[in-house]
Write a structure and sequence with these properties.
60s Ribosomal Protein L30, Chain: A
């Protein structure tokens, strides 16, 4: 089953100044969000495999759009994250089916790697809800400078029978990081932790 997409929204956030300090180069993050029809809205279905397949499809589509919005090659991405919100006639398991079993592999392929788990969040809500997309370094979860998040919103989504799905990608960590931890230069990217 392919996703029935009502709309796609892409958001780019660029921080150039933080606490009076110039950020050079600016930190940039992008999110690509798809609003799709929920084929199981309003009813219990045991087999969620079609949503799992939609997750795989959206993983590729949304990560390509987010990377393109940043204007970088996928391998130059630093962090990633994913999130979904089901409308009121959906259940959290619908979001989980999209986000977890198969979405990660195509995201990692677009980014050229991704040893670390892709941080995620899910919720049930109505139109205008915000998605808080957690972000973490794609190859090493212990890089504290990349513990972050991106908030996105679409004014008319998700409707009761829809799911809003997002993938976020960054070209850097937070502006002005200074809480220690593993540095980018120390990343090995072998075990997803360091």
């Amino acid at each position: 089953m392919s996703a029935i997409i009502r709309k796609i929204v892409t958001v780019v956030e660029e921080t150039q100044l933080e606490m009076g300090q110039k950020i050079a180069p600016p930190t940039r993050r992008a999110a690509a969000i798809a609003v799709i029809e929920n084929p199981f809205a309003g009813r219990y279905v045991e087999d969620l495999s079609s949503l799992i397949e939609i997750g795989e499809e959206l993983g590729e589509l949304l990560s390509k759009r987010a990377v393109a919005a940043l204007g970088i090659e996928g391998a130059k991405a630093h962090s990633y994250g994913k999130a979904a919100a089901v409308g009121e006639n959906g259940e959290l398991e619908h979001a989980a089916a999209i986000l977890h079993p198969k979405m990660g592999a195509p995201v990692r392929k677009v980014l050229g790697k991704g040893a670390a788990l892709i941080p995620s969040s899910k919720k049930r809500s109505g139109p205008g809800t915000t998605l808080d997309i957690p972000l973490g370094h794609k190859d090493a979860a212990f890089v504290r400078s990349h513990f972050d998040g991106m908030e996105v919103q679409i004014n008319d989504a998700p409707r009761a029978n829809e799911i809003m799905v997002a993938v976020a990608v960054t070209d850097s960590g937070r502006p002005l990081p200074r809480v220690g931890g593993l540095t980018i230069a120390e990343v090995k990217g072998e075990d997803g932790l360091r």
